[in-house]
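Hi Y.,

Following your request, here is the sequence exactly as I used it, all 156 residues.
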Amino acid sequence: MARYSSEFKLQVVLHHESPAGGSRRTAIQFGLDRGVVRSWVEVYRQHGEAGLARRTRPQVYDLAFKLKVVRFLEEGGSLREASAYFNIPARTTIREWRRQYASHGVDGLSDRRGRPRVKKKKPPSSGTKAPDQMSWGRNSNHRLYPDPVRYRGQDR
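Below is the corresponding structure, written out as tokens. Let me know if you'd prefer a different format.
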């Protein structure tokens, strides 16, 4: 997927808004798809030049924002309208949120990236058992150490 500069996007939008413009003519002149031209125009109308700027790092959306977008779709908004209105560059992101919400509800929209948290082990209690009091089957090194009960009272 080609990345376009914000200056190029602005040039395309301004050509579209000119009297000789239109999505079909603009798309042909700049060698773009009509849908791309229309989406840039919608973003420009909603957010101005700031909406056309390239993002330097991925955007992280919170649960409340995702829920607002999904509710916008439930009220009859299209993916293209939601993308332009909320300034979300990829419509596939919105489509995925809608799918997750339909299958898992609000919990499906929560962010699950990163490593899962591991429960911390409790520190050993002060009353630890001595090795000769441990169960014989639980000692993983039972072949290395002889049975302490058998040798109790004997010198090794």
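Residues 1-54 form one domain.

Thanks again,
Q.
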